[in-house]
Amino acid sequence: MESIIGWQVIFLCGIGLWILISSFFNVTRNLRSLTQPWVSRRVISGIPIILKIQKYQHRYLDALFSGLSCIVSVPFYTAFLPLLFWTGHCKLARQMTLLMAFCDYIGNCIKDVVSAPRPSSPPVRRVTATKDEEENAMEYGLPSSHTLNTVCLSGYLLHYILAYNGSSDAFTQIFGFTMVCLVVGLTGFGRIYLGMHSLIDIIAGLAFGLGILAIWLFVSEDIDNFIVSGQNVVSFWSALGFLLLFAYPTPEFPTPSFEFHTAFDGVALGIVIGVHQTYHQFHHENVARVFSPQLTISALAGRLLLGIPTILIVKFCSKALAKWILPILANALGIPVRSTTYVPALNSIASDKKSDEIKQSGYIQKLLFSSEQTSFDVDSGIRLIQYAGLAWSVVDLVPSMFSHLAL
């Protein structure tokens, strides 16, 4: 049995201690009282800037910036990252997946701590061309997740390409940096043009994105080495994913942000478990990469035709299994649970608002029952297992099928 590493215990205990302290001292509420009024004033004062930009509205600009928002959205990366794994760029894929989960967690935590409004519509014209954008509009505004994610992921992608190719050519570096700045600039400007964010949201997304990217570039190799060859990886990451659900702050009013975090929490857990268990089989540095004789375009097409339906089936089965097992387990442990979405039989008689508040309650309220909480919403656990199963299938089950079929 692997020995328990001291830093892992200290790290997990530190998160647990933060949960207790944050709850006892009402950290979220105090931070919100300090930041929300200031940010709200900046959002209101920034509306004239948005209206000036929107004077130049055109259907082509609507299509351009709506399309750009889709390209840098969470659903896009959810579809893009499996493709990276299956084309042989395994290190880049796992690094970007974990970075995406990190960005999503930090960004959504800040959103729900500050709970600052988006620009009011009207007078601002808000363009929500997709269902994903409609859900984004239900979140709080600061920081802009699209800007933050674009800074981190495009910045890390540039870093990886330059390091992978060993390029020290000044022209290549300047060109790559210019393209990253262009994408980030268009993304931020597009969020203002679409009426989704004010200038202060974009500035905050840029600032937090640069900070997160700097931290990630510093620790990414250590994290990758731990996932690949560390001790107690599965148990540590499982405990970490569980604690992060409880450490999430309570917003002023319920938003979809917690659901997005739970999904990516599950994705990160599934990726870590799968890669750790199958690194030497499918994810080492010498695996076949696309366009090589070992992985032709026809073989990649076969991988996609087999892999995509498989992970969708696993996602469905994981959800069904979790919906069946978690209520039974909770009942066996004597834990009252409710479900606001997935299990109609567990619907509470409480009002929808109260259900949402309990579902997203943060810190210690999720650990201990209070007079206002008589049950827990099981949907978060179902969502966590569902996306963990999906991610595990991407890096373990599907590559095993590729191996057996010589794809």
In percent, how helical is the residue content? over 70%
Low-confidence stretches: 348-373
Number of domains: 1
Task: State which percent range the strand residues make up.
Answer: under 5%
Gap from first CA to last CA: 36 Å
The chain-level structural class is mainly alpha
Query: Helical region count?
Result: 15
What's the average pLDDT? 83
Report the radius of gyration as a whole number of Å: 22 Å
Order of strands across the widest beta sheet?
1-2
Give a written overview of the molecule:
By secondary structure, this protein is mainly alpha-helical. It has one domain. The chain is 72% helix and 1% strand. A two-stranded parallel ribbon has the order 1-2. It is globular. About 6% of the residues have low confidence.
